[in-house]
Amino acid sequence: MTTTARTARPHVGTALNRVEGMEKVTGRARYAFEHSPDDLAYAVPVQATIARGEIRAMDVQKAHTVPGVIAVIWHGNAPRLAPADNAELAVLQSARVAYRGQYVAVVVAENLEAAREAARSLSVEYAGEPHDTELRADHPRLYRPDQVNGGYPTDSEHGDPDAALEAAPILVDATYSTPAEHNNPMEPHATVARWDAGGLTLYDSTQGASSVRATLAALFTMPPQNVRVIAPHVGGGFGSKGLPLAPVVLAALAAKHVTRPVKLAVSRQQMFAVTGYRTPTIQRVRLGANPDGRLTAIAHEAIEQCSTIQEFAEQTTTPTRIMYAAPNRRTTHRVVKLDVPTPSWMRAPGETPGMFALESAMDELAIACGIDPVELRVRNEPDADPESGLPFSSRNLVACLREGARRFGWADRDPTPGARIEGRTLVGSGVAASTYPVYRSPSQATARLEPDGRYTVRTAATDIGTGARTVLTQIAADALRTSPDRVRVEIGDSALPPAVLAGGSMGTASWGTAVVRACEALLAELDRRGGDVPADGVEAGADTAGEVRAEERFSRHAFGAQFAEVGVDVDTGEARVLRLLGVFAAGRIINPKTARSQLIGGMTMGLSMALFEESVMDREFGDYLNRDLAQYHVASCADVRDIEAAWIEEDDPHLNPMGSKGIGEIGIVGTAAAIANAVHHATGIRVRDLPIRLDKLLR
């Protein structure tokens, strides 16, 4: 992006306060569960108590005796749905049970208390079958999926990695594992569903109103225009609300059955079965290098799980394909179908667990070569994308490493593990790289000059707490050559021009492109009219499908460097993160205030992954044991004393009209590896299996 373009855009790049801030802090912002149409009923789901088998009988009589119960819906009386590509959406369509926690019935009542009581009293008889819920590297049913999430090839290979690894003077060969992790947004999934003569209206907690509309219309065999999804405010998602899942289908199905509006909220405990999670991984990383640290070979192999009813293969090894130069390379993914819920998106799926393994292995290689970990990464910087050979649109990983090292005081680090002790605390520091792809998807928008001289911009984008309204206001203001206070942005409604979901760190890039083009079209129309504005205003629209399809071929990625300082108590093994610093290269930062929030939020989530998060499977019952926030631990502000996110100036003209890259996910990538590397530096103990618990350090 040129200096001239920057001068012409005074609002993009400024720390504008959230335009909906007062609505949120005063409680005027209404979330899905807070909508209450007339004649509202309440729905409470019933979940399977076996991990595999079939429903033999459903005794609903006792449930119907509870005062206020309207209906008990199960596969024997549920409305029929059209077949779906995602079998998780075939709610109450069969007697089969594919995993413990799957929906087997739903109770609808006049109030929530009655629905809960009746749901507890429902008697379900099962024919249970032997189940398998254990992911292991030697599982006999491992297979190669056709592709992995994002449409990436399952495997990739260049050169002869086996021969190069065998001949390498320095070899790192290690296996790393990450546990199942569950998205726990502040607002649990919730839907209010209402049918009327016009079709179906949903107030839904979703990351994509347009995608929910398309999916529900197909399931209920109706035109998309007969479904309206309204999501003005969403209390976080982290990917779990990116795709339509069983709860929204169940709410719509229940409302159709009772011919009344129905409200359904997923409890925190239920979320551990029906709203997706990050698959556990087992990853083998092999790095071959010369004594100077230059890589000769990389092999990264991942093993994951999915359910028996729906394949989801996370793209765990894909970041390894673009990170470092090596002439011989291999990445693979293998999956096993288990009697478990279907994994789905969780913040930076693939990159997060994959970069933990790769960046931990790079730290081990640095030690084996006797080279500083920052310098090792710099020495293996590629000139072009190692996988595709395409030029990078911009790549400033080295700049992030250098700037991060300067800010962190890395030069003063004694590389000897266990050398620094303060009282009864061993102190160490670690580094890891971050990366995330740059995506842009087709979206539409309209821009309108109102009779009062203000502007209204509309697109079906979703703000999941990231500040989408605010940055789109800034983008529109600059494109219209006006001030933000003269622009109103309307989002969160499938009745607006279609927009891609808020996921993959592509929201702002995709929506922003559509908004810029719509605003440019409006200005062109105003110029054509010569200032003649009719009484009802002037509107113009844009569809970016053609522009996105025609974009030049570049390898587009954001990069970053994470630095961590960790203290480990020598008596208890308790690890505390003392400092976290992330330095990122993510194109032009549209709003420094919201950007810092997103980056620090991601880094905090990465800290949580390193030290706390772990969904523990009970193999006997096929269920996760720690299904609430009392036992599923997440990091809070007390778990890091000093956390800082910074970025370097990066001009990239090959992205979008704003020159921006997504920042919602890159903050989590690499953080866990930086912390694990710091723990090794502090203690000399290499933890390859997350999370880093006390027992792993007390030896």
TrEMBL record:
Enzyme class: oxidoreductase
Molecular function terms from GO: xanthine dehydrogenase activity
Keywords in alphabetical order: Molybdenum, Oxidoreductase
Pfam family, one: MoCoBD_1
Record domain Aldehyde oxidase/xanthine dehydrogenase a/b hammerhead: where: 26-130
EC number: 1.17.1.4
Protein name (Swiss-Prot/TrEMBL): Xanthine dehydrogenase YagR molybdenum-binding subunit
Organism: Nonomuraea africana
